[in-house]
Each structure stands twice: as C-alpha cells, then as structure tokens.
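Researcher: Before we compare anything, I want clean individual predictions. No alignment, no superposition, just each chain on its own. First chain goes here; please echo the sequence and then give the structure tokens.
Model: Echoing the first chain and its structure:
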Amino acid sequence: MSMERLWIDFLNSDWHDWRGSGKSADRLDQPDYVLAFARDQGYGQLAYPLPEELADLKSLRELLRRQALRMADGKKPEEGIMKELNQVLEKAAYTRKLEENGEGGWQVVSVPVQSGWKHIKADIAASFAETIRNGEESRIRICTNPDCLWVFTDFTRSRTKRYCDDKCCGNLMKVRRFRARRKEESES
C-alpha cells in the first residue's frame, strides 16, 4: 500500500474531464471504482460502504480538499480542519504487535482492531497527516488546467510544476495558448 499517495488518490476520486468536455463524476458513487480502490490499496475485498460510511468518506474528502487548496496557495494548515482530521484519526482503534521484519530482526507494527471503511478512512487521514509531518505541504499543487483540478505532489527541485501530467494537461494547455494567440493575431 502506498500510504504517502493514499490521500491524494482518494481526493482525486472527484473526477473532472481534463480535456474540457465539462463532464465530471463522483467516483465514490461508483461501486466498482470504490471496491477497486480498496483492493488496489491493499485492503482486500470489502463490501461497498453503507450510506453513512459513504457520507463519512465524502465528508473526509471535502475536508482534505479544503486543506489541499490552502496548502496549494501556500497557506499553513488551518487549525479547525486539523481538529476535524484529529477526530477522524481518534476513531480508529489499533493494537501493536511484535513481528519479524524479514531481515533477522524485529519490528513493532500497528494492527487495526477492525478492518473496513472506518479503518480505511483513518489510514487516509493518517497519510494526509504524514504529508504535513514530513513538511511536504508546500509541495501540494492543484493542476492549473481549469478543467482538471487534479491534486498532486510537486517533487521537482524548483517546485514550479503546474500540471498533474505534462503530457496530458501540459500539452493541452500549450495547444490552447497557441490557438488563442493565433486567433488573436488573425483578428488584429
């Protein structure tokens, strides 16, 4: 499971067509997507969330989006949002267990008391908290393609990446700027 990307993958379940068709979809409303998300993140086969679990997941996604927008604007984490995040983290119960680490040594691992959507929700919140703990909030970006709005982490040295994907959104925006200049020149 990729914990450092878990919250971003979850946040981007609010999909917008980056090509400009105006189409969008809340993928949390799509059972196949949600179950594949859980499976691909290493949580195994789960049942689709109950209505209250789905509402909780959407609420968490909105909370994370508000904070991601602040961080992308260079603002510090908002205290109220952090309190809400801590409430999510507090609802997950874990025990600790000593196990071999595969290298002849031992490690202490956290084991959830119960699996399911409450556990996944807490892991999503924890992955977001790790981003902040690691001082990476200044690397959070929102794709500048107004049709996309994908959240991503900018790992470039200069921290100037503007698009979630230079080959898709980057090329599309480059073509749009070129066509706008050409139209402007022809109208002059």
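Researcher: Okay. Second chain, same rules.
Model: Second chain and its structure:
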Amino acid sequence: MTIQLNSDIKKLFLGALAVIMLLTFTSCGKNIAFQNSSIVPAAEGKVSVKKDSNKNYSIGIKISNLAEVTRLQPSKNVYVVWMETEESLVKNIGQIKSDTGFMSSKLKASFETVTSFEPSKIFITAEDNADVQYPGMQLILTTNRF
C-alpha cells in the first residue's frame, strides 16, 4: 500500500510540474531595452511583448526620465508610440501618457496596448498631433529589431 501511495504522489507531482512548465513557456515574452536617446539623453525604458491566448500581442512600455514633450526643441505636443512589423509596416499604436499621482514623478511614463500584428521594433517620436499616420523626424527612443 505504501509503494502504491508513493507512486500516486510521484505521478501527481510530475503532472503538476508539467502544467507549471507549460504555463511558464506559454506566458514567456520578450523584454527589450530602448537604446540611448540623443534628444532626451536621460530617458531610459523597456518594452515587454507577450503573445496572449488569442494570439494577439500585448505591448507594455515603462519609461523613466522622460522630459516633458513641450520642453523639447522644437516643442511638440505628444509622444507617439510606433510599431514596426516583420513586413516593414509602421503603425501608430498610441500616445504616451505621463504617470500622475501622489508617489509618481512627471518624468515617468507608461503605455499598454494589444495588437494582432507581431511587432519587430518599437519606437517613440515627438509629434504635434497624436493621430499622425507617419512618424516625424524627432525620434526619441527606439529598440533594435527583435
């Protein structure tokens, strides 16, 4: 009876371990650092990209030391986040909002979105309007291709 019980516990343990490993591999994502910026040298941040159960891509961005967009030369109104795909399609995926609140600094920003396109590069530009269709010349932060 003891041998049968140990065998059942071992099977249960191995099954649970297999489920945990499966969940770990399916929830893995990419964490990519932005390159240093020549326009906002103190800015630094990371991009996380995860494929969800619906085969969409969840994109999250955290940035620190990001200067207010109105303080840039020339002054702009908004930071726009862009995504490039493997097919070289460039898409405006939204604007950066500064974190506000009791414990936050205005130099921090975050961004989250979901897209059906697989991103291969993320970059941020400073723009006059958030609804622009093509990125302007003021590149703030960019990742390498991933």
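Researcher: What stands out in the second chain?
Model: The mean pLDDT is 84. Additionally, Helices lie at 2-26.
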